[in-house]
Specification:
The complex is a heterodimer of chains A (about 230) and B (about 750). Chain A is built from ten helices and two strands. Chain A has about 230 residues and is mainly alpha-helical. Chain A folds into two domains: about 90 residues, EF-hand (Recoverin, domain 1, Orthogonal Bundle); about 90 residues, Recoverin, domain 1 (Orthogonal Bundle). The longest helix of chain A is centred in the N-terminal third of the chain and has 21 residues. Among the domains of chain B are: about 180 residues, Cullin Repeats (5 helical Cullin repeat like, Up-down Bundle); about 80 residues, Cullin Repeats (5 helical Cullin repeat like), CATH 1.20.1310.10; about 70 residues, Irregular (Ring Box Chain A, domain 5); about 100 residues, Ribosomal Protein S5, domain 2; about 80 residues, Arc Repressor Mutant, subunit A (Orthogonal Bundle). The longest helix of chain B has about 35 residues. The chains are: A mainly alpha (about 230), B mainly alpha (about 750).
């Protein structure tokens, strides 16, 4: 069969429930426009502090600087959450537009305020509907090539730890063990990625008594289930 | 009594006196005592008394009292005469009494009704009261039947038991007595049923229950069945002799339940004589009996069909095991095994058609049994491969040995098609068959008729798509003959003559029909190059826009080798010929030189050199003279070679590619599954996972049994390729992405 994308208008992100984070903002009026432009100025100034002068975007180095300003580790999930808020498209980079969107949504314009806003952001992201979206975004964010659809298992292990580690420690540990040991899957698709989250949310662990092999769980989870069962025996 | 009008009305007292006298006379007559019969005048006179008494003017109109009198007469007779006589007797004598008095009573009622007939005409009709006959019957029922029926029933049942145990009894008597029960129901079967039949059936139940218990212990299955059949026959006779026909179905069901249904498992599984043993030992009569007996019972055949299936499965499994055990060094004797399976099929199909009357239940059992063991692997070979190899050998032998008559070949072909039906991996069979067909068509003789015949039958059974490629291959061979004639014409006409004087035949294969073959960049000897070129020229004239791909690995050559002793004709493959011809110009060549000159792969060259220098016929001398080819060897033409034959065929052993066939089929299956999934989702739009999987399996079942895990993986792949998506609300349901 010919690859589907050849006959369809190519979408960069082909997910049906693509990233949709609400972007609210104040309705511009004469006074608020002035205020808004003042805010934008502050935001832009902040942006320039971290952006690379020649490229005009915040690059990985800039992000690292940002992280130390925020006193947050470089690999912390909150940076990813921030990226999600910004609807950042490229891993490791923030454009000016994205920066503006993000900070506006958080209603902050200084580093101090941004730092204070992080717990609020985290709470917001962890709301079930937002989290689903954020979770899918996390996968997409890591795709580097244009038509790439898979992530290697190494990256997935790191992502799992970051995104689900705090809530589902046990499951994540076992999943990572499995992913490292198994040889059948070298890459993971979005559907499988989503399956992991569903698994953690729906299946009681570690007994997994409500797991059903006859349902439409991705095969990798069937294999994981059988592997773990054998281990437990 | 004269007919003249009486002036005086008859009083009740007088009238009754006259009637009593008549009754006394009547009873004497019907009881068989010496008494002159009624004269016609007496008869009429009796009637007239009643008549007159009825039409008399009040207060002497006596219809009412007469009606009462009638009833009283009969009641008295029943109570005082009939009943005591019966009660005096016992057993069979009592039955006879009952029967006798029943007849007498009938006559009594009849005659008395005649006397009192006038009442029937007017008094009874006008008042809507029971008729004379009804009064009579009711009287008997209430005053005789009700009192004696229990004992009568006991006696009857005891007699029936006697008859069952083999003794003679008076059947006519029983018939009369039981008829009595029926009649005393007065319009319905209640009395018969409640006062007799129920008890009879209970007694029958325990009787046959006991018999079943003892027979099942002592008798073999055939003996038991004969007894059961006999019992049923006897009971049916019993009904026709004296039981009411209504009893038959209940009786038969009763006997069947006790003798056949409740013991079915024990009976059928009896060691050494049960269903299994009968099948093994060809006991068709017993099996037919078994079918007859159980067919008559609703759902009775099921345990028999199960026993049949288990037996056939066991037989099949043991054949498989035998073959597995006999397979030495991983090579299975599929000729023997397939023949045995065919024979097994014929044997048990015969049972189905003969003993089991072609019943669908048994066809199904046979199919299920064969499907179980026909899909087992033997020493690593799948049944699909074994069947394909079987066909290959069959046709090769048939082409070489024309003495085999066609009808046996045809019937074997029919058997093969039947067996294929039981094999789930039909596509695997097709692929193996195709590979072997290619070899048959290209190397050696084949019978066009046989090849076409099996393809036609396969097409009929499994559809055109199954056989289209293979048919194409056979057609190619046919067309090839015409093409060759055309080519030879061309050579003649083009005045080129035979290129370098070599007879050259080309077979053009249509890509797609034939298995895919590797091409190689073999450097042919010059003489052969010319042949190729001349054919190319001819073909380009004949056709447009067709590309020829030369597959030298499939060709063969006849060479004349001039050995010192005598020239010998060698029939070899093109590769082998190329290697040998290399020695036309040089005495000695090293392995490396041969590789450079011929441009063969190492694998191929090693094989070829081995066949020419280390095998049975050593046309080339190898230095060093070891058993294997190494890259440092060198070779020389062995002029000293000779053999008593003038013609030697040197086969190049084919590369066994079972693994490749399996891989190719797996790949095709993945495409087939994808196509099926997309087809289903396109039409259904939304479908839950389990349904999608089962529909997919259903669609593909004609060709193979898809692995569920593979289907799941294909679904996931289709999701990644944006053909399907999971429903956001319910991740177990899929939606088609338009």
């Amino acid at each position: 069969m010919p690859p589907r994308s050849a006959s369809k208008p190519s979408k960069k992100r082909s997910n049906p429930d693509s990233v949709t984070s609400s972007a609210t903002g104040p309705v511009p009026s004469a006074y608020s426009k002035k205020k808004a432009s003042k805010e934008v100025d502050e935001t832009d100034k902040l942006f320039d502090k971290y952006a690379n002068a020649s490229s005009g975007v915040i690059d990985p180095e800039g992000i690292e600087k940002l992280c130390s300003s925020l006193e947050v580790p470089h690999t912390d999930i909150r940076i990813l959450m921030l990226a999600w808020r910004m609807k950042a498209e490229r891993q490791g980079y923030f454009t000016k537009g994205e920066w503006r969107i993000g900070l506006k949504a958080l209603k902050v314009d200084t580093i101090g305020k941004l730092k204070k806003a992080l717990p609020e952001l985290e709470k917001e992201v962890r709301e079930p509907l937002n989290f689903r979206d954020f979770y899918a975004y996390a996968f997409q964010y890591c795709l580097t090539e244009d038509k790439q659809k898979f992530l290697d298992t190494e990256t997935i292990c790191q992502l799992l730890d970051m995104v689900l580690g705090s809530t589902f420690r046990a499951q994540v540990d076992y999943l990572i063990d499995y992913l490292k040991i198994q040889k059948d899957y070298k890459v993971i698709s979005m559907d499988q990625w989503r399956g992991f989250c569903r698994f953690c949310n729906e299946i009681s662990f570690p007994d997994m008594t409500n797991y059903n092999l006859e349902l439409a769980w991705p095969s990798i989870l069937d294999d994981f289930f059988e592997w773990l069962r054998e281990k437990q025996a | 009594m004269s007919f003249s009008q009486n002036r005086e009305p008859i009083t009740i007292e007088d009238g009754f006196k006259l009637i009593d006298a008549a009754v006394t006379k009547l009873t004497r007559i019907i009881e068989g005592k010496p008494e002159p019969p009624f004269l016609p005048e007496e008869y009429i006179g009796n009637y007239t008394i009643v008549y007159n008494m009825c039409i008399q003017k009040p207060p002497h109109d006596s219809s009412g009292p007469l009606y009462e009198k009638y009833g009283a007469i009969l009641q008295a007779y029943d109570k005082l005469t009939i009943l005591p006589s019966i009660m005096e007797k016992h057993d069979e004598y009592m039955l006879r009494e009952v029967s006798r008095w029943w007849e007498i009573n009938k006559i009594m009622v009849r005659w008395l009704s005649h006397f009192f007939y006038y009442l029937d005409r007017y008094y009874i009709a006008r008042n809507g009261i029971p008729s004379l006959t009804v009064v009579g019957m009711t009287c008997f029922r209430d005053h005789v039947y009700e009192k004696v029926h229990f004992n009568v029933k006991q006696v009857v049942i005891a007699l029936i038991h006697k008859e069952r145990e083999g003794q003679q009894i008076d059947r006519a008597l029983l018939k009369n007595v039981l008829d009595l029960f029926v009649q005393n129901g007065m319009g319905n079967m209640e009395r018969y049923e409640k006062d007799f039949e129920d008890f009879f059936l209970t007694e029958t139940n325990s009787y046959y229950s006991r018999k079943a218990s003892s027979w099942i212990q002592e008798d073999s299955c055939p003996e038991y069945m004969i007894k059961a059949e006999e019992s049923l026959k006897k009971e049916k006779e019993r009904v026709s002799h004296y039981l009411h026909s209504d009893t038959e179905p209940k009786l038969v069901a009763n006997v069947q339940t006790n003798l056949l249904v409740l013991v079915a498992k024990q009976l059928l599984e009896k060691e050494n004589s049960g269903c299994s043993a009968l099948l093994r030992d060809d006991k068709t009569d017993d099996l037919s009996r078994m079918y007859r007996l159980y067919h008559a019972i609703p759902e009775g055949l099921e345990p028999v069909a199960v026993a049949f299936r288990l037996h056939v499965t066991a037989e099949g499994n043991s054949l498989i095991k035998q073959a597995e055990d006999a397979a030495t060094s991983g090579i299975v004797e599929e000729q023997v095994l397939v023949r045995k399976i065919i024979d097994l099929h014929d044997k048990y199909m015969a049972y189905v058609t003969d003993c089991f009357q072609n019943h669908t239940l048994f066809h199904k059992s046979l199919k299920e049994a064969f499907e179980i063991f026909c899909n087992k692997k033997v020493a690593g070979s799948s049944s699909a491969e074994m069947l394909a190899t079987f066909c290959d050998n069959l046709f090769k032998k048939a082409a070489n040995d024309k003495s085999n008559d066609d009808s046996t070949i045809e019937s074997t072909i029919d058997n093969v098609v039947k067996l294929l039906d039981y094999i789930s991996d039909k596509d695997l069979f097709a692929e193996f068959y195709r590979k072997k067909l290619a070899r048959r068509l290209l190397f050696g003789k084949f019978s066009d008729d046989h090849e076409r015949s099996i393809l036609t039958k396969l097409k009929g059974q499994f559809g055109g798509q199954f056989t289209s490629k293979m048919e194409g291959m056979v057609t190619d061979m046919q067309l090839g003959k015409d093409q060759q004639t055309g080519f030879e014409e061309y050579l003649k006409n083009a005045n080129t003559g035979k290129p370098k004087g070599i007879d050259f035949t080309v077979t053009v294969l249509t890509t797609g029909f034939w298995p895919s073959y590797k091409t190689s960049d073999l450097n042919l000897p010059l003489e052969m190059v010319n042949c190729i070129e001349s054919f190319k020229a001819h073909y380009e004239i004949k056709t447009n826009h067709r590309r020829l791909m030369w597959i030298y690995s499939l060709g063969n050559c006849n060479l004349t080798a001039r050995f010192d002793a005598k020239p010998i004709e060698l029939i070899v493959s093109t590769y082998q010929a190329a290697v040998l011809c290399a020695f036309n110009h040089t005495e000695r060549l090293t392995y490396q030189e041969l590789i450079d000159q011929l441009n063969l792969s190492h694998e191929d060259l090693v094989r070829v050199l081995h066949s020419l220098s280390c095998a049975k016929y050593k046309f080339l001398k190898k230095e060093p003279a070891s058993k294997t080819i190494s890259k440092t060897d060198s070779f020389e033409f062995n002029s000293k070679f000779t053999d008593k034959m003038r013609r030697i065929k040197v086969p190049l052993p084919p590369v066994d590619d079972r693994k490749k066939v399996v891989e190719d089929v797996d790949k095709d299956r993945r495409y087939a599954i994808d196509a099926s999934l997309v087809r289903i989702m396109k039409s259904r739009k939304v479908l839950p996972h389990q349904q999608l999987v089962s529909e997919c399996v259903e669609q593909l079942s004609r060709m193979f049994k898809p692995d569920i895990k593979m289907i799941k993986k294909r679904i996931e792949d289709l999701i990644t390729r944006d053909y399907l998506e999971r429903d956001t609300e319910n991740p177990n349901t899929f939606k088609y992405v338009a």
